[in-house]
Amino acid sequence: MTSTPATAPNPTRPTVRTGVVALAVVLDVVAVLAFAAGGRATHSADSPLTAVLSIAWPFLVGLAAGWVLLRAWRRPFAAWPTGLVLWVTTWVVGMALRWATGEGLATAFLVVSAAFLLATLVGWRLVALLVVTLRGRR
């Protein structure tokens, strides 16, 4: 008599390695920090670290919320839906928190932040897809 263990893996649901998820998180955080660093370089006279963190924190909260709501660890490298949903949650929550804390929401900032975060949060995923696709053709 044989039995299947209760913890048998589900073959229809592949697992994503922890290192892959960690890499995706790091790339997303770097994208947000790069956005904040660019803003600091353009506008802030504060200390560099303080300025970057004061710009980045609302967007990092939005990014974390997106990761949890979407359960992005399931498909961390997917441009759709992961990249696009993370872009929207990062931007919307970031802007909402900036507004709630009395930070500025100038039109140019709204546009530049949306464009930069779209290009980076979705962009690195598209580059990864291209690399994997090209490797598969060899």
From TrEMBL:
Keywords: Membrane, Transmembrane, Transmembrane helix. This is DUF3054 domain-containing protein. Pfam families: DUF3054 (PF11255). It comes from Oerskovia enterophila. The chain crosses the membrane at residues 20-37, 49-70, 77-100, 106-132. InterPro entries: DUF3054 (IPR021414).
